[in-house]
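This part of the workshop introduces the protein records we will be handling. An example says more than a description, so a record of this kind follows:
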Amino acid sequence: MLNRTVVIAVGGNAIAPAGGTGTIAEQFRHARASLGPVVDLAAEGWRIAIVHGNGPQVGDDLARHEIASEILPPLPLGMLVAGTQGWMGYMIQQSLQNALARAEVRRQVVSVVTQVRVDPTDPALARPTKPVGRALSEAAARSLASEFGWQIRRTEDGWQRVVPSPNPVGIVESRMIQALVAAGHVVIAAGGGGTPVYLDESGTLEGVDAVVDKDRAAAILARDIQADTLLILTDVDRVYRRYGTSEAEPLHRLSLRDAEELGQSGELAAGSMAPKVEAAARFVREGGRRAIIARLDAGRDAVAGRAGTEIVA
């Protein structure tokens, strides 16, 4: 029997898409537009946790702090991740609560500022690879890199700042989140992948200046709260072989073995689809029943088996 618990991962770009102004009014508008599938699933009785990305938002916050650094001491990256969990959680929470009320779905929404455990010896901490902030021209990116000491690289969208992104190994607040989800509340957790922390030799939690990939964090959260389904929503309808070519092949269903082989093949884009397939496969490998990758507006159909790419054991 299904436990009908789903963890939904939504990208920060869904709330602040490329080419937009990035104003709070605009982000509220996109947040409201992205929540239809969540309302549908809540109305059907699914227990729900939401993980959102924060790449554009935390990148903007970093820039704000560095530009103002001669006036006020800037906050480190880990603190800014926690900050985006708060204000983005508020934005999504309010938007979703209003949408549920309009649909006459009597469910409460709560945001949990979440700490995500990482390994302090993870080699990724010494290799900045995760793009954050807005895409820039090469000249603008190099100018800011020189002024603020950024590390930058060319991405699919342009030139972006890159920061360390270690793999998550556990969710500190998982029991609390699981209890809230089991009680029927819609929980926003591990926003932006959660704030990365590690246990020192004395067993004390300490913060790390890095970001955690939100899809990987969603997979760990789904595992830790014993969810039935991991739903990763993105801007394409499903996973494809040879994506972007005339021979593109849509993939409707993958075994765990096929998904892992595809993820390791180097065929998928490292900054977009590859970590999604990796996270989906990890959830299934560690006991999840199924993971689905689908377009943002197809969430309900994806859970019903009518859309997206489903990965099963």
Remarks:
- The first strand starts at residue 5 and ends at 10.
- Residues 4 and 71 are 50 Å apart (CA to CA).
- The mean pLDDT is 91.
